[in-house]
Amino acid sequence: MVDLAGTELTGEDRDLLLHPAVGGVILFARNYVSPDQLSALTRAIHGLREPHLLIGVDQEGGRVQRFREGFTRLPAAGRFGALFRRDAGRARAACTSAGWLMAAELRAVGVDFSFAPVLDLDRGQSRVIGDRGFGSSVEEVQALSAAWREGAGRAGMASVGKHFPGHGGVQADSHEELPSDDRDWTTLVTEDVVPFERLIRQGLEAVMPAHVVYPRIAPDPAGFSPFWLREVLRDRLGFQGVVFSDDLNMAAAQAGGGYGDRARAALGAGCDMLLICNNRPAAVEIVDTVKGYWDPSAELRLRSMHGQGDPRHTGLHDDPLWQAAVREVALLEDLASPKSPLDDPTDPGARA
After folding, report:
1. Residue 120 belongs to a domain
2. How many CA atoms lie within 13 A of 317 on its CB side?
3. How far apart are CA 303 and CA 71, in angstroms?
4. Is 195 domain-assigned?
5. Where do the DSSP E strands lie in 82-181?
6. For 6-30, what is each residue's pLDDT tens digit?
7. Euclidean distance between CA atoms 278 and 121, whole angstroms
8. Among 21, 85, 145, 338, which one is most buried in terms of CB atoms within 10 A?
């Protein structure tokens, strides 16, 4: 899964997207001007191949929302957690509405899925998670992530739970360095892993592992670890969905070696699709490295990530469901906020 430099396809983009090793495109704020422009871009991407390339984006809400002007400003996940502690039923309903709203607006412009929800526990120490997490307790995160996924599914969108087995227990930002979580196995599996386990039982379609190493459990970062992805995620938790790597251009991914080595390590560990962002030479190196690789099981799993239903619902804003959802999320907070550094594709945190 690769990225694009601008708001429309160039000849170089088309050549890359036609490479047999490329299976999708991840979009950023720099690729967006308006809903009409975005629709034209996604239509051009989907028109290149059959079956069409997957199109994904980080549209969590709060400080990680790539498309803003012309889209509803979504609350940070932590706002739902704060409401949950006062009124759990109301919080679940609001989160379902927000998940539907996010998915419906993206599907209306041809985007297949968002890399959401975040299943990390907000332990008050991670620089990169914070209010991207629904809360600090297993109950909050599990209930609200399930509600978010339910809403997204109603709009025809699969969900991606991240960052397995949990990024909330470290202070370091994996965009900038390799975080090390020194907690033991019992603590992780009885706390951080539980929201993943419960959502997997409910049919979670995809997971993204963390670029975090857990040295008391396994020597490699989770995204490069056969132990975490094959033994724990697949065998013990019974996960049957897609495993997306986190961005192989992040500083923490250097633990996997050079770009070709990172790609081979992630595939060998059990990833189905690799993300490489904000580094076109590295993307070219990776697709050339894996051009002969083919996993028929991964191909079948990836089919579940294609958006369902009418992807060009031009009457969305006239839909009573959309109007009700907008009112619901507007009650949570004033969504106006200063520009986030995560919107800047040159910032280390641009791939969150």
Report:
1. yes
2. 6
3. 27
4. yes
5. 113-114, 160-164
6. 999 999 999 999 999 999 999 999 9
7. 28
8. 145
What CATH number has the domain bearing residue 112?
3.20.20.300
Q: How many CB atoms within 10 Å of residue 139?
A: 13
Write the pLDDT tens digit of every residue in 72-100.
999 999 999 999 999 999 999 999 999 99
228 phi/psi in degrees, rounded to 5: -70, -40
Assigned domain for 351 exists: no
pTM above 0.85, yes or no: yes
Rounded (10°) angle between helices 77-84 and 138-154: 120
Expressed as residue numbers, the domain containing 111 is: 11-334
DSSP 118: B
For the annotated catalytic residues, the residue numbers are 175, 246
**First-to-final CA distance of the chain:** 15
Place of tokens 């704060």: 82
Structure tokens that stand for 252 in this block: 């923490």
149 within domain boundaries: yes
**What is the number of domains present in the chain?**
1
